[in-house]
Structures are given as C-alpha cells and as structure tokens.
Amino acid sequence: MKIKEVVEALEKFAPLPLQESYDNAGLQIGITGSECSGALLCLDVTEAVINEAIQKGLNLIIAHHPLLFRGLKRIADETYVERCVRLAIRHDISIYAAHTNLDNTVDGVSHEMARKLNMTDLSFLAPLSDGSGGSGVIGRLAKPYTPHELLQHLKSVFGVDCIQYSPSVQTTIERVAICGGSGDFLIERAVECGADLFLTGEIGYHHFFGRENDIWLAALGHYQSERYTIDLMQRILTREFPQLPVLMTSVNTNPIRYI
Description:
By secondary structure, this protein is α/β, with parallel strands linked by helices. It has two domains: 3-101, NIF3 (NGG1p interacting factor 3)-like (Udp-n-acetylmuramoylalanyl-d-glutamate--2,6- Diaminopimelate Ligase, Chain: A, domain 1, 3-Layer(aba) Sandwich), CATH 3.40.1390.30; 106-226, NIF3 (NGG1p interacting factor 3)-like (Udp-n-acetylmuramoylalanyl-d-glutamate--2,6- Diaminopimelate Ligase, Chain: A, domain 1, 3-Layer(aba) Sandwich), CATH 3.40.1390. The protein has nine helices and eleven strands. Helix 7 (187-192) links the parallel strand 8 and strand 9 (197-202).
C-alpha cells in the first residue's frame, strides 16, 4: 500500500479545500509514492513522536497540527521544527497534517467532542454556504444540567483537572455550542443561535468579558479539546485499511504544564 492511498482516504473524509486560508494542511514531508509500513497518529509532531515512529517501524506520521505552518528560511537545528524536518528526512518518515479541513468537515473534530457528550440534533454552528462543511457544532445535551453540574461533567468526560469558565444568567444548560481548539471567534455566533453554553479549547482573555447576560463560556485547554482527534483519524483509517498498522502516539505533546 502506498502512502498516497492513505492520504487519499483522509482527504476523501476531510477534503483539503475545506481548510482555512491561513492553514497549511496536507503533505508536509515525504513522497507519497513510497510504500506505507504503518501510520502513527498525533496531535503535534515533535522529535519524540518521530523517534517513536522510527522505533515502531512506521514511516508515516499523521498529525492534526501542521509541523510546517510558516515557511522555513533554513533547516538547521535551532528550532524544534528544523530538527524535526531533519530527523524525518534522515529516516525517510513522511509527515501529513489534517488540520482545519478536519475541523470543518462533516463529522469532524467538533462533532467528535459532541459525541463524547452524547449530544443530539447536531448541526454546524457556522455552516458554509454550499453545505459542504462549517465551523463548530451546536446541539442538545442528553438531559438538562445546572451549570456547575455540567462543568463537573465536562471535567470527567474530557479528563481534565480544571476548566476556565465565565458565568451567565442561565440556570439550566441544555443547548450547547462546541468548537475544538481556539474557538472564541464563534462566541457571537453561539449567542445568535441560542446556545446556553459555548465550549471550546481556549478563549482569549478579553473575549470572556461582556457575556454575563448572554452565554456561559467554558475552555478545556487547546490540547485537551483536540486530543480525541486521533481517535477520529484512527477510525477513518482502520475502516479503510484494516490490515494497516495505525497506532496512536504514546507521547503527550501538550507543551503546557499545570501545578
């Protein structure tokens, strides 16, 4: 099986034209005509992840976040990106990223978060005009919660020790809007759509202001909101290629620590 076939399966599910204009999803390093020995799935590409792929004999790394987001003017060893590029090329490891195209596709990243919460009546929060995809999702919880009951439930479901939040006037939460990663650009849209709470990965400080009469805001952490993306990618690939080794990284690539 060629790496090209694996890439085609991913892009059938999450077409590259769905990515945002600022993004750099797609093939980052490598030649798609090579035989694929297996894929290692991760949220971020780091030297530890590449070394894990080498050790496990996997010549394809599929990440959610692009390693090459901005152009490189040189490839030395001053940054982790430069070192990752050199290490991957030296060991003939191909690297592919499914980023905002996977966010914006039907049943993509935000849908995966909603499934964790057993939500129903899901639709895109900000659909594209042609119906091919959109940003975020909105739907209903399986049952109503008080706000603090829901916040504790979110901590349990997503396995986090803390959640950033700001309160609002709602005393019952049932309609929830979700966006994995950095979703504060959708807060106004969530208010317009009648969401009781907006859940995302990270919210800029100033975006928490002025919503005390509109909507509850909750942020899990960027990594924490998107780490189940690799579950989604694994389902896609094992369904298409049941004989191909498709492994999740054992490396926690979150650069943020908590105390």
